[in-house]
Q: What sequence folds into this?
């Protein structure tokens, strides 16, 4: 087993070949060839997987609306609120599609991870009966904590030689 601080270093002809490196090279060259030939086709498997994920989220929203609305006798107002939220998300999605397409994918994933973590911790606490300081504003505090922790860990991960010593 060798590490970055061991006798082998990247660029060394004796550096052991990793299987993911050759898989990456093969995929990368295949994509570059396809781009040169301007091959375009629909990826039905990816489309079907995305469709199933969206349908699953939609069914989840329906169940939440039914559970919350029916439990309090407010099914119609809850359903109308869910429909209004859906329309609002569609309008905002169309409005920000172009600017967001310029944001790197990993940056978007990082931002979504921060938000999901913040909301997850907040709603888990709500479910357990925790009284958060600042009530709903506590979500912003959690988002700040996860953002700062993530950025700190990214900086640590980018300099593995210094951390290993």
A:
């Amino acid at each position: 087993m060798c590490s970055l601080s061991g006798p082998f270093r990247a660029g060394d002809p004796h550096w052991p070949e990793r299987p993911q490196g050759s898989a990456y090279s093969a995929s990368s060259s295949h994509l570059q060839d396809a781009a040169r030939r301007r091959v375009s086709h629909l990826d039905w498997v990816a489309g079907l997987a995305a469709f199933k994920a969206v349908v699953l989220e939609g069914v989840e929203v329906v169940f939440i609306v039914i559970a919350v609305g029916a439990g309090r006798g407010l099914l119609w107002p809850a359903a109308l609120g869910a429909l209004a939220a859906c329309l609002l998300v569609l309008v905002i999605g169309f409005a920000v599609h172009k600017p967001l397409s310029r944001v790197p994918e990993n940056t978007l994933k990082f931002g979504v991870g921060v938000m999901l973590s913040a909301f997850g911790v907040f709603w888990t606490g709500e479910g357990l009966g925790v009284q958060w300081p600042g009530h709903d504003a506590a979500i912003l505090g959690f988002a700040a904590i996860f953002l700062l922790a993530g950025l700190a860990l990214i900086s640590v991960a980018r300099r593995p030689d210094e951390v290993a010593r």
Residues 43-102 form one domain. The chain has a mean pLDDT of 81. The CA atoms of residues 67 and 75 lie 9 Å apart. The chain has six helices and no strands.
